[in-house]
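User: Can you recover a sequence for this backbone? Please restate the input before giving your answer.

Assistant: Of course. Working from this structure:
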């Protein structure tokens, strides 16, 4: 799969849902809610970690986080599919917008929000 093309994964996920008759449940609202739920499960793995510990996960913890990240990606792709949004294109567009909002020479090393500069 090309890194600039999520289409094979989108098709596989659509097939997976269709084969189980789950498409009926995959409304944008439900997928958005599932996406947030899965993102919260990522947080659980880091909830009581120090900054240092969060960068040095055990192999088992790293695998568990990887599974949660995959769940987030799956729901994100399904949501984008239902809304007919090209995620790769949307991401590149957002990066361009952020380059204007956060010019490197102005914000380097500073993590404030755009409105605070």
């Amino acid at each position: 799969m090309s890194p600039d093309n999520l289409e094979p994964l989108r098709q596989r996920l659509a097939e997976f849902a269709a084969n189980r008759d789950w498409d009926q449940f995959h409304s944008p609202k439900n997928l958005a809610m599932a996406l947030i739920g899965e993102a919260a499960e990522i947080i659980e793995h880091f909830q009581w970690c120090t900054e240092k510990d969060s960068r040095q996960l055990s192999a088992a913890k790293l695998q568990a986080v990887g599974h949660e990240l995959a769940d987030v990606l799956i729901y994100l792709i399904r949501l984008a599919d239902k809304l007919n949004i090209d995620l790769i294109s949307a991401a590149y567009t957002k990066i361009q917008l952020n380059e204007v909002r956060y010019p490197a020479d102005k914000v380097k090393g500073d993590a404030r929000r755009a409105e605070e500069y």
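That completes the design. The chain has six helices and no strands.
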